[in-house]
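Review this chain:
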Amino acid sequence: MTGLVLEGGGHRGIYAAGVLDVLLENKIKVDGVIGVSAGAIHGSNFISGQVGRSVRYTERYCSNPQYMGWRSFFKTGDLFNTEFCYRTLPDFLDPFDYTAFSKSKVPYYVVVTELKTGKAVYHKCKSLKDENMDWLRASASMPLVSNPVEIKNKLYYDGGVADSLPVAKFEELGFNKNIVVLTQEKGYRKKPNRLIKLIEKKYKDYPDFVEAMRNRHEIYNQEIEYIEQQEIAENAFIIRPSSKPLAGRLEKDSAKIRLTYELGRRDAIQALNNLKCFLNPSY
């Protein structure tokens, strides 16, 4: 089976949205999708078949304080405003196609990190309607600038804490050929978290979570090396930025959002023929 694995990265993740729109436009089919953080959010639009939705609302609202900003953080504890981002926006301002998502035959997984254990949880989303949207929100809830999301009496944070690049997990689930969309350029390696002292203080009651944050860079770098080995073995096909994305994690400049999205589109178009050969060697 063929899987699609989507890295996060906050607003830098709009690169993946550009890639996904090209895949949709060219009717590239996969057997399953797994997304982490922003990758989970953009992946949901891939499942619902809504080309252009991710970049449209990100461009429009990235500088809107109702969408994201310190006003929301100091008022609610969430830098990305929960009510606006996960209720008002998908239900009214730029409607998400909940029906198309639910009818899709492609299984869709989001990765979250359980606060108590510091371990990754891989949740299969059959719907994003109402409280089901909380799984998507949890996957994108960054430590320090978000509240943990409570689901069925457990608390969850950003999936990238425990498993930023869940290729090995998808292989375990039976997806033996994977398209992997990264949001960092070739050669990137994650460095130790500069805010680890603050993390230790804030999450002192959750030592396993702190440990996961402390080791995150090492796990990420190991996963990159594994994915690159899988690419050599022709078990993975990597699409990554051909140059450093202009959009930062908390980008508010809509022009940089658009340029990063267009970079994703260009890289995907350039990779298209090779991707088709990967999916179908007789192509």
